[in-house]
Amino acid sequence: MRAPIGHFEDARPATEARELLPPPVAAAVTADMVFVDTDPDKADTADFVVAYGQELLEQSANCVVVAGKRGQDVTLAACLVLSTTRVDVNNAVRRHLGARKASFASMDTAVGETGMAYGGITPVGLPAAWPLLVDTAVAAAPYLVIGSGRRRGKLIVPGKALAELPGAVVLDGLGT
Q1: How many CA atoms lie within 13 A of 154 on its CB side?
Q2: pLDDT of 46 higher than 90
Q3: First and final CA of the chain: distance in angstroms?
């Protein structure tokens, strides 16, 4: 199989790569997702595009876990933005979550709550109760490279499919 974007030696339907994915991701992948095998030492976006092609910078999205706080209540959510932008945590995320304060969740919280590896967190297979905030540019993209839940490997997914994941809410201005 050939990946819809990029030039990867090993690309296959994600449904045929479940053994390479953490359990929550393996259970959630669908037929329109492609798994590409990549070097785990090159999982971070900057290293990834050097190794696999600079054009992928414009075709990648990052997923981060945030914590919104209001009094003693903490709401965890995931945000998905193009890799060329940053999540607007202090405005868009805070307002959407109805929080007084929002910040990136700690590594221990992000890893512990998702069952995924830090640096590989993906919107596919997130805890069911979490909101998934998706930037409009992500939803509009033909295909994007995202994490696979591990540092080894990536998923290539249509933007439309990302916007239709469980808990997804498309927000204009999430990525700045």
Answers
A1: 31
A2: no
A3: 35
Asked if residue 51 is part of any domain, the answer here is yes
Owning domain of residue 150: 11-171
Instruction: Give me the residue label for tokens 């993906």.
Output: 122
Tokens 């509009």 correspond to 140
Number of domains composing the chain: 1
Q: With 90 as the cut, is the pLDDT of residue 52 above it?
A: yes
**Is residue 44 in a domain?**
yes
Q: Which amino acid is at 133?
A: L
> Residue 89 is part of a domain; what is its CATH number?
3.90.960.10
Q: Is residue 6 part of a domain?
A: no
Across the beta sheet with 132-135, the strand order is 101-104, 61-70, 73-82, 132-135, 168-171
Q: Is the pLDDT of residue 20 over 90?
A: yes
Place of tokens 């997702």: 33
Cβ neighbours for 147, distance < 8 A, ≥ 6 positions apart: 43, 62, 63, 116, 119, 120, 121, 122, 154, 155
Specify the DSSP class assigned to residue 87.
Answer: B
Q: Is the pLDDT of residue 89 over 90?
A: yes
Does 53 fall in a domain? yes
Q: How far apart are CA 97 and CA 10, in angstroms?
A: 39
Confidence class for position 138, pLDDT limits 50, 70, 90:
very high
